[in-house]
Amino acid sequence: xxxxxxxxVAALCHAGWNLLVKSAPxxxxxxxxxxxxxxxxxxxxxxxxxxxxxxxLPSVWPALVSMVLHTAYAVVLHQAYRAGEFSVVYPxxxxxxxVLVTMATIxxxxxxxxxxxxxxxxxxxxxxxxxxxxxxxxxxxxTLLGLGVAACSCAxxxxxxxxxxxxxxxxxxxxxxxxxxxxxxLSAVVRLRRRPVRPVLTHWxxxxxxxxxAPASYGLVLVAMSLEPxxxxxxxxxxxxxxxxxxxxxxxxxxxxAWRIAGLVxxxxxxxxxxx
Length: 276
Known about the structure:
Elements: H1 2-23, H2 29-53, H3 57-83, H4 86-95, H5 97-104, H6 106-109, H7 114-131, H8 133-136, H9 141-165, H10 171-193, H11 198-201, H12 204-225, H13 230-236, H14 239-250, H15 258-275
Helix pairs in contact: 1-12, 1-14, 2-10, 2-12, 3-9, 3-10, 4-7, 4-9, 4-14, 4-15, 5-9, 5-13, 7-15, 10-12, 13-15
């Protein structure tokens, strides 16, 4: 029950900061860099506290791996929102990771049961319904990028679970090192792109809540990972799927078509079957 409560709050935080990213006038690596920089002082504070308590070293190199995966996730996410609607990209990017996690864990968890395969089929069918592929004879770029986001999410979910449960990484220094590493990496990327950062800086008010909500949402997920198996955590995070569609309709005024409802129901139902 504690893990479910944590995941519910995390879902609200995650859907909120994704909505802010989608509605931001400035997107791309520079905007990711901006909210990473805003979060840096808090990360430095956490790192200082962890150093004083001697809990940093076991978390450093696993956090750097996590940082690369999360940075790729953030950059692809921005590209997906530039290409597609929130109420399509968000369910695709949040609904398919449990399926990918199930497939990726076959080597050590064994083959899924029949109901899991049925769930996988439902999720894939739901993604096709959300995108209405048969009407355009190809998958939309926003949906493809949403699937790329899902692949990044699967990768960091598996790695972070391994880091916390098997490598003994402590959640707070783990987050702090990953966030600070992201600032360094993105600073190099922004410099190489040679684009002025002053226009991005004017959007700091939009970036400020993202800098708070993004690490908070994932910190809660990491704590949940230490309490429940990875499959249960992936299931709990599908609360975001429903929240994403509702926010897209209510806040961004996107259309809630019959096919979109059918796709949402299929994705949510499929994820439950995969994880039961």
